[in-house]
Specification:
With 707 residues, the protein is α/β, with parallel strands linked by helices. The protein has a domain at 2-23 and 393-578. It is 53% helix and 8% strand. The strands form two sheets. The protein has an eight-stranded mixed beta sheet, sandwiched between helices. Strands 9-10 form a two-stranded antiparallel sheet. Helix 2 (19-30) packs across helix 11 and helix 21 crosses helix 22. It is globular. It starts with a helix and ends with a strand. Residues 1-19 form the signal peptide. The chain crosses the membrane at residues 451-468, 537-555, 561-582.
């Protein structure tokens, strides 16, 4: 019987890892380089940058709005708007979101006003190049005085008002429901008509006809705008300068695609943890496999952060009032799988979004558990009889009166390619219990080559894929990542099973204890990271030591089991070590860092400030600036010819240059420049009230006035 079991388990295990060597061979055959996507002019396409947030504290709001401000200012255009779509419950935090929005609006108004003055004087080196092409160049033929008196304030006011915050009424479908409602609002729908049927959704259904969003000026600004695209983003997602225009060009060349999925680059800097650097390194090493597989299938996963075509999404995923579709299950967490199945995402590996990796192993583990829970929910819908019915029965027994029976209105059928992509995470998840079961069973079964199978599995997962990615430039990083992967993933046979069990129990019992990742990160920063690691992982160490001692004393020596137990026992040490920075120092608490900045600027109240310096190099800390190729430049470029200056009172270039030498616009003060240069966190929050601009004006959402 043991022999039969181990053959079955080994078959499942080796079948699960078989895709790694298959992907590697495919990469070697077709190449793992980034494919350059076809592009087309996108002058008429409109997009709204949609950041989604459920804030648990002010730091969440500050981080999200900082990211949104950088994304918006770095892609400023008449066709681009930005909105923070908030599901925050706390009234004080909701009010804080609006306060910070107004402060960013004020900063944007100030920066644009100064740029407009520089543009009017022909001092183009003082104007952000993207703003010059997309905002100011259209006023090149307007008389200077007319521009200053009739246009400038209106331009600043308009772009400041496109930086928005709206608050959603319902929590149905969580993040997915947030941007669904935003799309409907853009199409002119103010009241809910989707996910209102209690026959399908029980207590999770919302009331028909209830408002989608709480009434506000920003909501009124979005209604019936009919944006072509929504760029869906998380609160920690960065958008490189000009990246939005690049995505729109790709979308314009592929109008049949409902999702343009850019690559996700994990970003980290010198002051970040070793774990973050290892995660970013791992992603770079395995990127060629992603490039090859998406090129082979001409399709990719949807990562939850992508450019979505609103009309196609509504038609295929939501439906109309008269013909509801509602393909995404109301309680599902991994909604991306259903959306990808219908809209066939195009992988745009030649452009990218930025995201921070998990700060340490513990927060990575928390995130993985949340994802595991989402995959289990998916399995309940994909295999509704074999897996869904037993799970529903257990839920009914354990949840009792809290049990809420749901079903999907329109089922989604997956073809082979979509199914392979959709179930990738689920396959990897089930590798862990199969591996643990194999390690246990092989002790009780006599095998001629005891370790051959596990060596093949580990080689296929950790070593063989490197054949397609390793080269002279990165071989040192490949070796380092391989060693780190052995230390991190060998315990996964045990830790992964515990994670799956906890995710399974959370789904069955509805007993979910949510631990905010930010709280864990701050715990690591404010105390000794080794102590913090042991506090979260001590159970694995104690269990591994006890079981290891028992095996050594009472049973025969078993090398494979002891290797797993040894690495698991040392997990807190690995977690603590990789929680240090690259110079092996503890990370500094962000709250204390902000307090030092506030004291330096003479500000005591956090709520009094929330601004970032908007100079032309402000984005260098979050990735390379997108630079179009020569062919792309031919598609969209506004030429600034020498004769343009005559409209502003300059007869020739010599007169212009002489004017620029004698009338320089006021630049940033030295203390601000020093703060930028020495900042430990990009985008430090600076005071609005320092009075450092001679032409500064304020935008507070109601009026403008001279400072």
């Amino acid at each position: 019987m043991s022999g039969i079991l181990i053959v079955i388990v080994l078959g499942v295990l080796q079948g699960s890892v078989l895709e790694f060597p298959v992907q590697t061979i495919a990469t070697l055959l077709i190449g793992g380089e980034r494919r350059d996507n076809k592009r087309a002019p996108c002058d008429r396409l409109t997009v709204i940058l949609n950041y989604n947030l459920l804030a648990t504290g002010k730091d969440d709001i500050l981080e999200c709005l900082e990211k949104m401000y950088k994304a918006y200012v770095g892609n400023l255009s008449p066709n681009v708007s930005a909105v923070l779509l908030s599901a925050t419950n706390d009234e004080e935090l909701k009010e804080y979101e609006l306060q910070i929005r107004d402060k960013y609006r004020s900063l944007l108004y100030d920066d644009l006003y100064r740029e407009g003055l520089a543009f009017a004087r022909g001092e183009y080196e003082l104007v952000d190049p993207i703003h010059l092409d997309n905002v100011w160049a259209m006023y090149i033929d307007v008389n200077r005085n007319v521009f200053l008196t009739d246009y400038l304030e209106e331009i600043c006011d308009r772009y400041a008002r496109e930086f928005m915050v709206v608050h959603r009424v319902s929590r149905v479908l969580r993040k997915c429901g947030q941007y669904q409602d935003l799309m409907l609002l853009s199409e002119g729908e103010c009241k809910a008509y989707s996910y209102c049927d209690k026959r399908y959704y029980g207590r999770l259904a919302r009331e028909p006809g209830e408002a989608l969003f709480h009434t506000s000026e920003d909501v009124s600004n979005i209604i019936d705008r009919k944006f072509n695209y929504t760029l869906v983003l998380d609160s920690d997602t960065g958008v490189p300068r000009g990246g939005v225009f690049d995505m729109l060009r790709i979308a314009a060349a592929h109008p049949e695609r409902g999702i343009i999925q850019p690559s996700i680059k994990l970003h980290c800097g010198p002051g970040d943890t070793l774990f973050m650097h290892l995660e970013a390194m791992r992603q770079n090493i395995y990127e060629p496999l992603t490039n090859a597989i998406t090129a082979l299938f001409k399709q990719s996963s949807y990562f939850g952060k992508a450019l979505i075509k609103n009309k196609l999404y509504i038609d295929y995923v939501i439906g109309s009032k008269d013909d509801l579709i509602e393909r995404v299950p109301v309680d599902v967490l991994s909604h991306e799988t259903y959306e990808a199945a219908l809209l066939k995402p195009l992988y745009a590996g030649s452009t990218f979004l930025l995201e921070e990796p998990s700060h340490n192993y513990v927060t990575w583990n928390i995130r993985e558990r949340r994802w595991n829970r989402g995959e289990i929910l998916l399995a309940m819908y994909f295999w509704k009889n074999a897996f869904g019915k037993p799970m529903r029965w257990l839920q009914k027994k354990l949840q009792r009166s809290k049990f809420n029976k749901t079903k999907v209105r329109t089922e989604t059928k997956l073809d082979f390619v979509t199914s392979y992509i959709a179930h990738s995470a689920l396959r990897h998840m089930f590798m862990k219990p199969a591996l643990l079961l194999y390690i246990i069973l092989q002790y009780f079964v006599h095998l001629r080559n005891r370790y051959a199978s596990i060596i093949i599995v580990m080689f296929s997962v950790l070593v063989f894929p490197k054949f397609a990615t390793c080269n002279r430039k990165n071989y040192k990083f490949v070796i380092l990542e391989t060693i780190a992967s052995i230390l991190q993933f060998t315990p996964e046979a045990l830790v992964g099973c515990v994670r799956i069990w906890r995710a399974l129990y959370a789904n069955v019992s509805l007993n979910v204890k949510w631990v905010p990742q930010r709280a864990v990160e701050e715990d690591f920063k404010s105390s000794n990271p080794f102590l913090s690691s042991f506090k979260h992982l001590w159970g694995y160490s104690v269990f591994s030591v006890l079981v290891g001692v028992l095996f050594v004393i009472f049973l025969d020596y078993e090398g494979l089991l002891l290797v797993m137990l040894t690495t698991t026992a040392g997990l807190p040490v690995y977690a603590g070590l990789t929680s240090l920075t690259t110079d092996f120092k503890c990370c500094k608490p962000s709250s204390k860092l902000l307090q030092r900045v506030f004291r330096r600027r003479g500000i005591l109240d956090k709520s009094a400030i929330a601004n970032v310096v908007a100079d032309s190099n402000m984005y260098s800390s979050i990735g390379n600036i997108y630079e179009p190729s020569l062919e792309e430049s031919k598609i969209e470029h506004t030429a600034l010819m020498p004769n343009m200056y005559t409209n502003y009172g300059f007869d020739d270039i010599a007169q212009l240059l002489n004017h620029k030498n004698t009338h320089k616009m006021e630049s940033w003060s030295s203390d601000v420049e020093s703060m930028i240069a020495n900042s430990e966190r990009y985008g430090q929050m600076l005071s609005l009230s320092s009075g450092r601009y001679s032409h500064s004006r304020r935008f507070d959402g109601r009026e403008k006035h001279m400072s």
